[in-house]
Amino acid sequence: MKQKIALIGFGTVAQGFCEILLNKKKELKKNYNYEYEIVAINDIKYGTVFNPQGLNIKKVLEDVRTNNKFTKNLVDWDSIKTIKKSNANVICELAYTNLKNGQPAINHCKTALELKKHVVTSNKGPAVFAYKKLSALANNNGVKFLIEGTVMSGTPVLNLVRGPLAGNKIFSAKGILNGTTNFILTRMEEGMSYQDALAEAQKLGYAEADPTNDVEGFDARAKVTILANVLMGANLHFNDVECEGITKITLSDIEEAKRQNSRWKLIASVELKNGKIIASIKPQLIPLTHPLAGVTGSTNAITFTTDLLGDVTVIGKGAGKVETGFAILSDLLEINDSKK
Predict the structure, then answer these.
(1) DSSP E strands: which ranges in 130-261?
(2) Per DSSP, what are the bridge partners of residue 314?
(3) Phi, psi for 287 (deg, rounded to 5)
(4) Catalytic residue numbers, as ranges
């Protein structure tokens, strides 16, 4: 059955996802019997477009690059109307992330699920603030609510535990879930000051003009909240997670770590202790012998401690246009496979 997709938000991730679909269209049909049409796109900057037979995605991408707005198939719909009125059976919620209350993305997801439309999102807001409610709503309506792209972009984390690691009990998950801070700490270890390392991260596009969410640990805090609630069945609120960023780490701290054969990493941690799930994000000294110590630059990694396999570490990119676009595709392929 051909997927009819509506995109809510058409920023970097959505554009990367569309480029993947165009480049791999024949391969996806041949290898996975996957066929699609993007029938609607809503974006607060570019406008809303709709064609029940499928939009010309090459034209849409060209419009964004050359005109900075959509020019064909325009309709006067907001995001909610796009979800309700389009003939899409899958909604990809790719709007901006709000780590204060998860809106308006939560309402986007809720509206779609109530209409029995599948939802795929890389938006951390709904996963952090309303995962259990939205997941229950999806189950009750016979559709899927999939969020692989919320933790480590396209590097498999949630799907890994649900798939290849199924049958294992997860005792803990500890990892480097923010590439910006890992890049900064790597450059500081090479002798660069915090401010200079941050400036380089901003120049390279790893850090925003306002880097607060990254350097104060809020981005990783959201991700560890998702890990706790989704993988380990906790019911933690964003503010329940102890959080400390990297802004207090000095070059002296970096040098002292070297003398101890260790290095500083911003570690996201969730673990089962005495029947209680504890989650935190804070700088930690990691021995050079630990797998996470060797993860440098903007790379992400996570180590799962399991009952059957012991420690399992996954390393990969945790952000990026193509990487997060792939996360959206992987969830869509899961929906496609479930229909066989």
Answers:
(1) 145-146, 170-176, 242-243
(2) 302
(3) -60, 145
(4) 223
Contact 5, 120 (CB under 8 A): no
3-class SS at 269?
Answer: strand
What is the residue type of 162?
Answer: R
pTM of the entire structure?
0.93
Round to the nearest angstrom and report the end-to-end CA distance of the chain: 9
Signed CA dihedral, 56, 58, 63, 69: sign only:
positive
SS3 (DSSP) at 264? strand
Distance of alpha carbon 101 from alpha carbon 194, whole angstroms = 31
Q: How confident is the model at residue 1 (pLDDT cuts 50, 70, 90)?
A: confident
Strands 262-273 and 276-287, by their bridges, are antiparallel
Could you tell me the CA-to-CA distances from 274 to 171, 225, 312 in Å, in that order?
11, 19, 22
- Show Cβ contacts of residue 175 under 8 Å, excluding neighbours closer than 6 positions: 152, 267, 268, 292, 300, 301, 302, 303
**Backbone Cα Rg of the chain:** 20
Q: Following CA atoms 325, 328, 333, 335 in sequence, which dihedral angle do they give, to the nearest 10 degrees?
A: -170
User: Over the stretch 122-180, which tens digit does the pLDDT of each residue have?
Assistant: 999 999 999 999 999 999 999 999 999 999 999 999 999 999 999 999 999 999 999 99
**Rounded Cα–Cα distance for residues 113 and 332 (Å):** 15
DSSP H helices, 34-154, are 57-66, 79-85, 105-114, 124-140, 149-152
Distance CA 83, CA 40 (A): 9
